[in-house]
Structure formats: structure tokens, C-alpha cells
Recover the amino acids of this structure.
């Protein structure tokens, strides 16, 4: 078994209401773990806690045995909402993490260009967010997350705001990127098809208060075909087993 | 692009047309009244030319009046910016301090500058009286807009920096300040307008015989309407020009904000 990088054991309450109820799981090195759950089940709260920007009410998130802390650990987070900084050009935006970490200018530019190429946005370095499409903005957010070479990458419904076609293209893209620069990823979504397409392992969350309903390893080979019989069968099986009502 | 230019031309033409309509109504009214209290347009024009060429009853030219008033409002306005922006930022970042001092700050906002005149006369002298009254007018719009804009900073932008381990000071410099700057600019524009509107009140108590507000007051004592109207129009037109310049500068500086206008 591969080494465990992240160890999660948390509960979260808001104003006395249970949101996350004893969520317990581990993430292995270089794993692509997808967490699926219905709308409004506290997925974003979970993402925020995993990234260390929000504190759990009880328990903790540990990375290599230490409590996760953005000041000390190399974490990246792709947010559900559009998150491009309106007054930054694309190149400024993707290199923001490097700048915060105090990486020197030349190295920052080099890496910035690298990740812009990685997400296929060459030529748009000096554009502002208002000049590009929603799908492109999400690519920039992904490039920004990759730029710092994170030990742990969290993506919270990163394609939720996109239309079906762009979403599909972005899924192919994210798998291509993950194939090139393999990271430890937790990907949060409400879309079971997306989960089966991307995941090496799936965790299914229940409705509020959210707990882990079931866990499933996805052993289909990559790249996967959304329309193949195996894919559809797998999707049907996990839907049934985890009692996901689609 | 062509459609846009066409639209601009139309805007200018319609604005000129409305001016002509107002001028006609004015002329009909003054002709019908035939009274020195409703001067005709030519009478106002003659007063305007007279004020420029010969100056007022004390031989002070219109240009000198305008210049004196502009210097005063910019002094008061600058003081309002210097105090209002940092204070607004600080209280926006520490809303608890604001909430606990609201009882002092908020009522002061509703005291009109003109009500401060007696106190200003007693406590202040000379130029500081002008600056104080104008500062009162400009300070609150600038302070309040700055304060409120800080609370409207998009939390996602703050979180983007936080996840990378950014310190508070970095977040303030790189996220909070750039995102509130357009709102501060709007506050400044509104503040400048109100500062300019306070000029007559300020010059009531300034003591000097120069200034557009003072010009109006001088001719009010003589009940000479054409010169009064010239003073009023000068205030209106200069306020309009300042506002337009400000809007153009705002658009230039905050081009990243033009999310709606470009398709």
C-alpha cells in the first residue's frame, strides 16, 4: 500500500448545526481522490477545512503527521467560484503563489510560463480576466494551483460553473495535466459521472449532516471513455451500491 | 465601433438640444415676467462678460474668484482624503472598532456643514475656516464608501492568497487595497462634488472678499440677479467639468473593472 500523505478526522458545526459529522479518511501520495456529495452537504466547507483556511470544530487535518497550516505546508486550492484576481494579468495571477512564497523573479516567470503552457493558454499571458471566457479562467485557476508544485491539491467543483461541453473538455484536460505533473489531489464534485471519469478512488458523502457513506476504488484504466460499457456499468454499480439517487 | 461613435454623437446632439430648449423656456419666462429678478439670457451674458473684463464691484475678476474657490476646495478635499481613506480602511479592516464607535461617528454625519458655521467662526480663523467646512462636506462620503467597500472584498480573492500562506499585510496590500480602490475613487468623486457644493457656505464665513461663493453673496446684498446667476452657473459648470474629468480618469485607471462594457 502506498504511503499516506493526508490524514483527515474532523467534525464541523455551524451555529450548533452539524455540517460535517465525523469525517474520517486518508489520502495517499499521488492519489486522485474524488469526493462526491449532493448539493448543500457541506462539500465546500470540507474543502476549506482540508486547505487549512477554515478550522474544524473537532479533530484535525494532518499532513505527514503535522496539523495542516497554509503558512507551513505547500497546499493549493482551486475554488468553486471564479477566483481570478480581476486586477492581475494571467501571468501575474498564476505566479501569485510563488510571489507569496518569495521565489526569485526569474524562476517565478519561468514556472509561470511553464504552467500557462501546461493549461494551453500560451498567448494569453497579458490578458485580464474580463477579456477571457469562463473556461479559460478556470484553467488559469488550475495553472495557479499547479505553479507552486503543491504537495496537496484540493479542487472544489472547479467545473461547476461551466457548460456541459466545456466541462467535458476540462475533465480531459485535468487528466492530461495530472498525467504530466502527478499531484496528490482531492477533487470535490456533485457529479457522479465526473467522479468515475477522474477518480482513482471515490468517497461518497451523505446529505447533511455529511458523513462518508461509502468508498470505492475505481480500477478502470486511464484514459476512460464515458460511453464505454465498462464505464457505464461501473457508474451504475457505484450508484446502486452507494444509494446515490441521480 | 461605428455604432458606438454614432451613439456618442447622438448623446452630444441631444444634450445640446435640451440646452436650447431650456434657453427658450428661460427667455419666454423672463420676457413674460419683464422683471429685474428674472434677467434675460443676454443680461446674464453681459454680466458674465462684465465680470471677466471689469471684475466685480471691487474690481476682482471672475478668474480670481474661481481660482480662490478651487484652491480652498482642493485644500478641504485633500484633507478629507488624507483622513477619510486611511480611517475608512482601518475601520473596515477592524469592523469591531467601528461598531463600538458608531454612536460617535454616525450622528456627526448628519449634521449639515452649514450648522457648523457658528462653531467654525468661534474656533477657527482665516483659511482654516474654509478648509474645515469643505472638509466636513467631503469627509463622510469618502470615509463611508471606503469603510463599506472593505467589507465587500470578495472572500475568494482573500482565500486565494491565504491558501498560499500569505500574511495579513500582504493580503491588505495586494488584495484588499486594489479591490477597494475603485470604490474609494467613487467616494472621492462624490466627496469632491459635495466639497464644491459647500463653497458658498464656507465663503460666507471666510472673511475674504474673493471666491465664487463670496461673489454671489456680494451681489445678493445688491439684489443684482444677473451676476448671481453667473456665479451659480459657474459653480454648476465647474462641478460638472470636475466630475466628468474624474469619471474619465477612473475609467482609465480601473480598466480591469470594465467587465460589462466590453463584449
Amino acid at each position: 500500500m502506498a504511503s499516506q500523505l493526508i490524514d483527515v478526522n474532523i467534525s464541523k458545526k455551524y451555529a450548533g448545526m452539524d455540517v460535517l459529522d465525523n469525517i474520517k479518511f486518508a489520502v495517499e501520495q499521488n492519489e486522485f481522490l474524488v469526493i462526491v456529495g449532493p448539493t448543500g452537504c457541506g462539500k465546500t466547507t470540507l474543502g476549506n477545512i482540508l486547505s487549512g483556511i477554515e478550522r474544524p470544530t473537532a479533530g484535525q487535518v494532518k499532513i505527514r503527521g503535522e496539523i495542516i497550516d497554509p503558512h507551513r505546508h505547500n497546499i493549493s486550492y482551486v475554488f468553486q467560484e471564479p477566483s481570478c484576481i480581476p486586477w492581475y494579468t494571467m501571468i501575474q495571477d498564476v505566479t501569485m503563489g510563488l510571489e507569496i512564497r518569495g521565489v526569485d523573479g526569474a524562476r517565478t516567470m519561468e514556472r509561470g510560463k511553464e504552467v500557462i503552457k501546461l493549461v494551453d493558454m500560451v498567448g494569453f499571458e497579458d490578458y485580464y480576466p474580463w477579456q477571457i471566457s469562463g473556461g479559460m479562467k478556470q484553467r488559469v485557476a488550475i495553472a495557479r494551483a499547479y505553479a507552486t508544485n503543491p504537495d496537496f491539491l484540493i479542487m472544489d467543483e472547479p467545473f461547476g460553473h461551466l457548460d456541459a461541453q466545456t466541462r467535458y473538455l476540462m475533465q480531459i484536460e485535468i487528466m492530461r495535466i495530472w498525467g504530466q505533473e502527478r499531484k496528490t489531489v482531492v477533487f470535490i464534485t456533485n457529479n457522479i459521472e465526473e467522479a468515475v471519469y477522474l477518480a482513482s478512488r471515490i468517497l461518497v458523502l451523505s446529505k447533511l449532516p455529511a458523513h462518508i457513506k461509502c468508498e470505492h476504488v475505481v480500477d478502470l484504466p486511464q484514459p476512460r471513455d464515458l460511453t464505454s460499457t465498462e464505464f457505464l456499468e461501473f457508474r451504475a454499480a457505484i450508484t446502486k451500491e452507494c444509494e446515490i439517487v441521480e | 465601433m461605428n455604432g458606438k461613435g454614432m451613439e456618442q454623437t447622438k448623446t452630444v446632439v441631444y444634450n445640446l438640444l435640451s440646452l436650447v430648449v431650456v434657453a427658450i423656456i428661460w427667455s419666454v419666462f423672463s420676457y413674460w415676467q419683464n422683471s429685474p429678478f428674472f434677467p434675460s439670457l443676454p443680461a446674464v451674458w453681459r454680466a458674465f462678460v462684465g465680470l471677466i473684463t471689469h471684475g466685480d464691484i471691487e474690481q476682482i475678476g471672475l478668474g480670481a474668484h474661481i481660482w480662490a474657490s478651487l484652491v480652498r476646495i482642493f485644500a478641504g478635499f485633500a484633507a478629507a482624503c488624507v483622513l477619510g481613506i486611511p480611517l475608512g480602511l482601518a475601520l473596515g479592516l477592524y469592523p469591531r472598532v467601528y461598531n463600538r464607535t458608531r454612536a460617535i461617528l454616525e450622528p456627526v454625519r448628519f449634521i449639515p456643514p452649514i450648522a457648523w458655521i457658528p462653531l467654525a467662526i468661534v474656533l477657527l480663523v482665516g483659511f482654516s475656516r474654509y478648509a474645515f467646512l469643505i472638509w466636513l462636506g467631503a469627509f463622510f462620503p469618502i470615509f463611508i464608501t471606503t469603510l463599506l467597500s472593505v467589507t465587500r472584498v470578495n472572500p475568494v480573492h482573500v482565500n486565494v492568497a491565504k491558501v498560499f500562506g500569505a500574511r495579513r499585510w500582504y493580503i491588505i496590500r495586494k488584495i484588499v487595497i486594489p479591490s477597494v480602490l475603485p470604490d474609494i475613487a467613487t467616494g472621492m468623486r462624490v466627496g469632491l462634488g459635495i466639497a464644491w457644493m459647500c463653497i458658498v457656505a464656507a465663503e460666507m464665513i471666510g472673511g475674504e472678499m474673493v471666491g465664487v461663493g463670496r461673489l454671489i453673496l456680494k451681489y445678493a446684498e445688491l439684489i443684482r440677479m444677473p451676476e448671481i446667476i453667473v456665479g451659480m452657473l459657474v459653480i454648476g459648470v465647474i462641478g460638472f467639468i470636475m466630475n466628468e474629468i474624474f469619471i474619465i480618469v477612473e475609467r482609465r485607471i480601473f480598466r480591469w473593472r470594465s467587465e460589462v462594457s466590453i463584449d
Remarks:
- The longest helix of chain B spans residues 2-33.
- Chain B has a mean pLDDT of 90.
- The CA atoms of residues 55 and 179 of chain B lie 47 Å apart.
